[in-house]
Amino acid sequence: MKSIRADFEKMKASYPLHSSFIHFGRAIYGRKYTPEIIRRCSIRLIEKEDYTKSARNQLSVHFDKLTNMAEETDFWPKIRLGGVKKIPTKDSIKIG
Predict the structure, then answer these.
(1) Residues 6 or more apart in contact with residue 76 via CB below 8 angstroms
(2) Closest CA to 15 of 42, 7, 68
């Protein structure tokens, strides 16, 4: 729980405009946590306004998938603790 909370707080500080749902997803991404730990931590860290009670099971399934994703995937490349990959803009892409 301590490392999830620490990563969650770092994400929250780095991306203050994002929801706690997004911060939590980034904190557990690729870390291979058990479903029990994810559920317990999500209840404590994610703000209740970010989801409905009926969506709780769907969120658990989503977070289970996120935590079991490999770090190498491009789903959230290098965004865990502030190492954001530069995203190309339309001006930086050369066509032709």
Answers:
(1) 25, 26, 29
(2) 7
Q: Which amino acid is at 21?
A: F
Query: What's the token pair of residue 51?
Result: 């989801």
pLDDT digits (tens, 9 = 90+) for 27-51: 998 889 999 999 999 999 999 888 8
Phi/psi-derived region of residue 51, left when phi > 0, alpha when psi is between -120 and 50, beta in every other case: beta
In whole angstroms, give the CA distance from residue 88 to residue 15.
Answer: 20
Q: Transcribe 69-89 into DSSP letters.
A: S-TTSSSSTT-TTS-PPPPPP
pTM of the entire predicted model: 0.69
